[in-house]
Design goal:
The complex is a heterodimer of chains A (959) and B (256). With 959 residues, chain A is α+β, with helices and mostly antiparallel strands. Helix content of chain A is 26%, strand content 21%. In chain A, helix 18 links the parallel strand 26 and strand 27 (711-714). The chains are: A alpha+beta (959), B alpha+beta (256).
Chain lengths: 959, 256
């Protein structure tokens, strides 16, 4: 049928089917600002304004919109300078979003803008609560909503021409007031903000090709089964179906989906398609068809006969005698301590010092068991990939991946194509959080492109994200700690049972990190500082649940839940001040990272000294900000809630993360100068929304004495950008950043040399500032003159640099996390009222993006603490398959959040930086757990802290 | 799959269209777009948007709400009590509330619906066409799949001379409730208590007077019920707690 729709004030004609939704129709017509987030409207990524109100375009039939006004983000404003043509520029909301740092990955930004516009169209002086309510239909997993809220309030104040009155929630304690930096420690706008704020087609799904096919995966309804037969004839004969692939069609190549450096530090236990399925949601067949609907229909026509096998859903059953073996394939390749006959994907045994002797030296022994759940990354952009043969018969894969270079290497083996015939392009990423450190669907589209010769596109639904992607490892962690009467820790032990699910991707490294970071923080005091006694043993076992994998924090949040709950328990039991007790035993500058002497992800240990520890300052600033001293032991404050059946409590947790993987992580950068004195910076690093492209650009610009606008940053394309291990392990600023600085220094040297020739002065006298090369007697040449000279005038050469850097250390960032809660004594409901996080991340390169990392990380961690969990029926079917049952925090229910940076200067980085992205994940849950204990005197040792768990603990306490 | 789309301009035309097989009314579209478009079975849809079924009228004693009124419109009236409004806020996020109609909600809701729970407590009725039948919404929801093909909810109405309260427990403030209880009081004698959180429809646990043991009735309704995020022990205890809180927090349905 043909319809007319009024979109952005213009009447458009569309040919549609009656069942087509507005989302499909508008996307097909090129309105790419509308994004797919989920099928049920929970994310709101598909927001349009419908007669001025924000609605989900995915949940409206296109034909329903006839006669109504539809507004998309494309109508808001555009790039102001378009050559000889000038546009009216950006909408004040867009400008405010850019200036406040409200854009991270940018995938939900158009939706947030529209929701905000709907508010400001009727209320130009909204309260913060009204803003939070107005944008509450849009989920953002990156920002924690702080900066979007600030942006809306700022835009409103500008439109009504008044000052914005809002107290800052960010506090910055600089390392030194005397800094000559132009860009380091400043907050220039993100380099990708302009395109994201306009909703430009920058994401994988925005790229469409002629004759493109749509892929779908038929998945297993059983937790564990053998495929006895599979008949795809009927599906193949469905009109529009172009290929159906089963395990019989593909070469049997064993691999790991983990996007990690070679050799993969874990077992190889996965096939693209196999004759055994190991979890509900595991792959059975791939389909490519002319439309999504046909592909979906084809999945129902494939006849599969399964022999159901006994399944393991509880990791404690995995190693029992006669337990079913989940990986019996003969091709299985072991790594380190894996043993498929025991359902063991990895085994870790780390003993530092003499732990048993340490326990005998203790006056008190504390033992407790803690658990953490399986949770989802919930990046709002789902997994999405497109593959096609290019004109040179090379396979091109456009993918929302954190690891383009690892993906290329892994695909090469799976597809039987040499690396040189594969090109992986990473467009902008709509959030990753580790979920895209995985070759999850790139092989599916590639196999189907090889089978059909056509471009093939696959985008997961939200349901598939829950059933068939990756998650955080659930763990059971037993703590045993020896303590002297004076509070000295004599020995510390953590024994872990970690559940890797059906496949062992990241099994060893995630769980290794659990001990490496969390158990590395407390070494003891006195002689124990030089000779700590620490034991970390872990069994990482297979179960018939969806595989675990990488998730922001990479095992460390799991570790700090027990460690920081345990420290609080000990302090309370022995009547120590919980903070003094921690600081007494915490690692200090100049000491060895204890785990660096004993473990290195299956490789040779490389002892490493920690140079900067800002913990005491973090504690001091955090305490002050949350008013700890007036609350912690103050019954008056605890009973001050207006509801007499509610008690208030306050808690703390300290944490330590890492910065990159030493002696392994490598990155490179190349840089060249253009005629006008601008520069192209090519990096293989993948900005998944964190702002790392901006930070890399800032560092290069600082070295060269130019503005950030004069650097065009491109990331990443395996054909054009140099190698980078990818975005994980909090490494980009440190590893990729150092490579960028090295490349920029090469460029700077060449500019100085050329300028010295032009100015007839010694090269050493030249300084670079404001895009000028300036001699000691204040004569100067502009960079454009230098560029024209080198490219056109004499002794021509391309001024360029290329450098790489491999991490030799992993300097840890530190944090002090504080939480304030209210606990309902009757229902057990814990309401988190305030979170305060003070972080030592070395020197801060970009203040706004770094604060954004803290706010977004705390928000994710808040969900981990109180409401997020993936649970399963007894047959392995998931309970939570959408964002209604799996709740993540919305803008209108956030606690007050305050973030503090306490700067130190890390000597191993050119600008003194350490990591920032992962550490906000670590302390929130234990700080909340400790605050609950402070409020009502009960210990909840299992995450998430649900109302029922608190209520149950209160019942037990009462009885 | 959706085969045909109709947009009638009169109620009679809509009712005539709905007489056809596998024809369903279309209001906001959220349910149909998210589920029926994916089904292999073919449906025709009859869009109600031109029927002007979104009028809200207050009289001294009752409110009549057109069936295509969206949930957010009810909030935007700023006439209802905080607890009544909370039950709507919890039903769905803003974008969805801007589209979901009251009639659509009654057609598709499960027993978890907080807003339907409070409507049951308020003894709300629907007007069902053809025949202009008045029917308690609890009866409609209980039998909606079996007995009402081709019918159309045109209005929802309830008495305003009542007080009402609504209490819930959820994982976070904006999360869908694990359990909710609503209590209404008409005059000083008539009390109705409804409980939502599981099953196909919210339950009416008390329709009686002040002598009834509301808390016990709520708690008993949860016996032998458990769900993913709550055991039956917890549900039973919470039903009791919420019921007691409801008794203490009754307030007029609408503000003056």
């Amino acid at each position: 049928m043909q319809i007319d729709l009024l979109v952005n004030g213009t009447s458009n004609q569309f040919n549609i089917l009656p069942g087509d939704n507005l989302f499909q129709v508008l996307r097909k017509a090129g309105f790419h600002s509308i994004k797919f987030g989920d099928e049920l409207g929970q994310t709101g990524a598909d927001t349009v304004l419908f007669d001025g109100k924000p609605v989900n375009s995915y949940l409206i039939l296109a034909v329903q919109a006839v006669g109504h006004q539809i507004v998309t983000a494309e109508s808001l404003g555009s790039f102001p300078d378009q050559g000889w043509k000038k546009s009216p520029g950006l909408h004040p909301l867009q400008t405010a979003f850019i200036q406040t740092g409200a854009i991270q990955c940018g995938y939900c930004t158009p939706a947030l803008l529209l929701a905000s516009k709907a508010l400001l169209d009727v209320n130009l002086d909204p309260t913060e609560a009204e803003v939070r309510e107005a944008i509450s239909g849009v989920l953002c997993r990156c920002t924690g909503y702080e900066k979007p809220v600030e942006a809306v309030l700022l835009a409103a104040s500008r439109i009504r021409k008044s000052d914005l009155k809002r107290d800052s929630t960010n506090f910055f304690i600089p390392f030194s007031q005397n800094t000559n930096s132009n860009l380091i420690g400043k907050s220039p706008a993100k380099v990708d903000a302009l395109k994201l704020v306009q909703g430009n087609p920058v994401f994988t799904a925005d790229y469409e090709m002629k004759d493109m096919l749509f892929a779908k995966i038929l998945t297993s309804p059983y937790a564990h089964a053998k495929i006895l037969s599979i008949d795809s004839n009927e599906a193949e004969s469905l009109p529009g179906v172009k290929a159906v692939l089963t395990w019989k069609d593909l070469p049997r190549v064993i691999y790991s989906t983990a996007g990690q450096s070679d050799p993969i530090p874990g077992p190889l236990d996965t096939f693209s398609l196999d004759d055994t399925v190991r979890f509900v949601g595991d792959r059975v067949a791939f389909i490519a068809a002319e439309t999504r609907e046909i592909a979906e229909m084809a999945t129902t026509l494939i006849k599969v006969v399964y022999e159901e096998l006994p399944a393991i859903l509880d990791p404690q059953d995995s190693q029992k005698e006669n337990a079913p073996i989940i990986h019996a394939e003969v091709e299985y390749v072991n790594f380190a301590g894996s043993n498929p006959k025991k359902n063991l994907a990895a085994e870790i045994r780390i003993d530092i010092g003499d732990v048993d002797k340490g326990f005998t030296e203790a006056d008190h022994i504390f033992e407790e068991t803690y658990t953490v759940p399986k949770v989802q990354q919930v990046h709002i952009e789902p997994h999405v990939a497109l593959s096609y043969w290019d004109e040179e018969d090379r396979l091109v894969v456009r993918s929302s991946t954190q690891v383009p270079f690892h993906a290329r290497r892994i695909l090469s083996k799976l597809l039987d194509l040499p690396v040189k015939r594969i090109r992986v392009i990473k467009p902008r990423i709509g959030g990753g959080f580790g979920g895209k450190q995985e070759v999850l669907i790139e092989d599916v589209v590639s196999h189907l492109t090889i089978a059909t010769g056509k471009p093939v596109f696959l985008e997961y639904t939200r349901r598939e994200e829950f059933t068939s992607s990756r998650s955080r490892h659930p763990m059971r962690l037993k703590m045993k700690t020896g303590v002297k009467d004076d509070g000295t820790i004599t020995a510390n032990e953590m024994i872990v049972l970690s559940d890797t699910g059906a496949y062992g991707c990241h099994a060893l490294t995630v769980t290794g990190n659990t001990g490496h970071k969390a158990m590395g923080l407390y070494v003891g005091d006195g002689d124990y500082r030089r000779h700590p006694n620490i034991r970390f043993h872990a069994d990482v076992v297979y179960t018939n649940t969806p595989p675990s994998g990488a998730y922001r924090g990479y095992g460390v949040p799991q570790g700090f839940w027990p460690v920081e709950r345990h420290m609080d328990l000990i302090a309370a039991s022995l009547h120590f001040d919980p903070i003094s007790f921690r600081l007494k035993n915490a690692i200090r500058p100049g000491e060895f990272h204890p785990f660096s002497t004993a473990w290195n992800e299956g490789r040779e240990p490389q002892p490493e000294i920690i140079h900067t520890v800002g913990l005491p300052q973090c504690v001091e600033e955090g305490k002050k900000t949350i008013d700890w001293d007036n609350k912690y032991e103050n019954p008056g404050w605890k009973n001050s809630h207006p509801n007499q059946r509610v008690r208030k409590g306050i808690g703390v947790a300290l944490a330590m993360q890492g910065t990159a993987i030493p002696h392994l992580d490598m990155a490179a950068a190349s840089m060249k100068m253009n005629d006008d004195g601008s520069f192209n910076l090519l990096v293989g690093a993948t900005d998944l929304g964190t702002g790392s492209d901006t930070v890399l650009g800032q560092m290069a610009a600082e070295v060269l004495g130019i503005s950030l606008e004069d650097i065009i940053i491109y990331s990443s394309d395996t054909d054009f950008t140099p190698f980078d291990k990818g975005a994980y392990a909090s490494s980009t600023t440190y590893v990729s950043g150092t490579a960028v600085v090295k490349a920029a220094r090469q460029v700077a040297d060449q500019i100085r040399l050329r300028a010295a020739n032009l100015l007839k002065c010694p090269q050493e006298e030249i300084i670079l500032k404001d895009s000028q090369a300036i001699s000691s007697d204040n004569r100067s040449v502009s960079f454009s003159e230098v560029a024209l000279s080198s490219l056109h005038h004499f002794d021509q050469q391309q001024i360029m640099g290329m450098a790489s850097f491999a991490a030799q250390a992993s300097p840890p960032p530190f944090s002090a996390q504080f939480a304030e809660v209210s606990v309902d004594l009757d229902t057990g409901l814990v309401t988190v009222d305030q979170l305060v996080l003070a972080v030592d991340s070395g020197r801060i390169i970009n203040l706004k993006t770094s604060f954004g990392q803290l706010e977004g990380g705390m928000t994710q961690a808040l969900g981990y603490a109180v409401c997020e969990e993936m649970t399963y029926e007894s047959n392995g079917k998931p309970h939570e398959t959408d964002l209604s049952s799996y709740h993540i925090f919305r803008s209108n229910e956030m606690p007050v959040m305050k973030s503090i940076f306490v700067e130190t200067e890390e000597p191993s980085h050119p600008f003194g930086a350490k990591a920032v992205a992962e550490i906000p994940m670590d302390g929130v849950a234990p700080a909340i757990g400790n605050a609950v204990r402070n409020a009502i005197g009960v210990n909840i040792n299992s995450l998430p802290i649900t109302p029922e768990k608190v209520w149950g603990a209160l019942q037990n306490k009462g009885s | 799959m959706i085969a045909q789309y109709f947009r009638p301009s009169s109620l009679q035309e809509a009712l005539d269209l709905l007489k056809g097989n596998d024809r369903i009314p279309l209001a906001g579209g959220s349910y149909i777009s998210s589920s029926l478009t994916k089904e292999p079975k073919t449906y025709d849809v009859v869009d109600l948007q031109d029927l002007h079924l979104d009028k809200i009228t207050f009289s001294a004693e009752k409110i009549t709400i057109g069936a295509t009124t969206t949930l957010q419109t009810l909030i935007d009236l700023h006439r209802f009590s905080d607890q009544f409004t909370t039950s709507i806020l919890l039903e769905a996020p803003l974008n969805i509330r801007n589209r979901v109609s009251l009639g659509g909600l009654l057609r598709t809701c499960s027993g978890k619906s907080p807003f339907v729970t409070i409507l049951i407590a308020l003894n709300a009725n629907i007007i069902l066409e053809p025949g202009t039948r008045t029917m308690p919404i609890l009866d409609f929801i209980s039998f909606r799949d079996q007995y009402f093909p081709g019918s159309l909810i045109t209005k929802v109405l309830f008495q305003l001379d009542q007080q009402v309260s609504f209490q819930y427990i959820s994982r976070t403030n904006a999360d869908f409730p694990i359990l909710c209880v609503a209590l209404s009081m008409k005059g000083v004698h008539r009390f109705r208590q409804a409980l939502g959180g599981f099953g196909n429809t919210a339950l009416l646990t008390v329709d009686g007077n002040a002598d009834d043991d509301f808390a016990h009735a709520a708690s008993s309704a949860c016996a032998n019920v458990s769900k993913t995020w709550a055991s039956h022990e917890y549900l039973s205890s919470m039903a009791e707690v919420l019921s007691i809180r409801c008794q203490k927090s009754l307030e007029p349905v609408v503000s003056n």
